[in-house]
């Protein structure tokens, strides 16, 4: 993964501020960093690197248009919510049927099934 120039700035802004919550130091997520990203590879890299930031990653996944990448996230995503969000963006009936039958998480299976009803 590479971040040069503006991309480096966006990455820095995302990880920017730290704050204390219930005695733990966490980084505040700056959604503007995700909103500014337009390059598909940057969005993909962002989701893979920062998967634990749900809101930001959800926005990034919504901006990804490559069906192969969305399929990969839906079938192999580290977190079930990533798989569920990606499943709502897939257009392949066979992939959705597979996810609806085989994913270990019920929420992912429901999202895949609902997407099947839409297309």
Topology summary:
Layout: H1 6-15, E1 18-21, E2 24-27, H2 31-36, H3 40-49, H4 54-63, H5 67-76, H6 80-87, H7 93-102, H8 106-118
Antiparallel strand pairs: 1-2
Query: How do the strands line up in the largest sheet?
Result: 1-2
What is the N-to-C order of secondary-structure elements (H for helix, E for strand)? HEEHHHHHHH
What percent of residues are in strands? 5-15%
Shape: globular
What structural class should be given to the helix and strand makeup? mainly alpha
The largest sheet is: 2 strands, antiparallel
Number of helices: 8
Q: How many strands in all? A: 2
**pLDDT average, as an integer?**
78
| Radius of gyration over C-alpha positions, nearest whole angstrom | 16 Å
How many distinct domains?
2
* Percent of residues in helices: 55-70%
Distance between the termini: 34 Å
Low-confidence parts lasting 5 or more residues at pLDDT below 50? Answer: 1-26
Structure description:
The protein is mostly helical and 119 residues long. The chain has two domains: 64 residues, no CATH class; 54 residues, no CATH class. It is 65% helix and 7% strand. It has a two-stranded antiparallel ribbon with strand order 1-2. A hairpin with a 2-residue loop joins strand 1 and strand 2. Helix 3 packs antiparallel against helix 4. It starts with 5 loop residues before the first helix and ends with a helix.
Attribute tags:
single chain; about 120 residues; mainly alpha; 2 domains; two-stranded antiparallel sheet; 8 helices; about 65% helix; globular; disordered N terminus
């Amino acid at each position: 993964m590479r971040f040069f120039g503006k991309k480096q700035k966006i990455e820095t802004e995302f990880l920017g501020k730290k704050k204390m919550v219930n005695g733990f130091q966490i980084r505040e997520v700056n959604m503007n960093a995700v909103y500014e990203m337009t390059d598909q590879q940057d969005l993909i890299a962002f989701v893979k690197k920062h998967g634990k930031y749900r809101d930001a990653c959800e926005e990034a996944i919504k901006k990804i248009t490559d069906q192969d990448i969305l399929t990969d996230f839906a079938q192999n995503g580290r977190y079930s919510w990533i798989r569920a969000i990606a499943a709502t963006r897939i257009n392949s009936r066979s992939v959705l049927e597979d996810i609806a039958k085989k994913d270990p998480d019920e929420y992912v299976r429901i999202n895949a099934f609902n997407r099947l009803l839409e297309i």
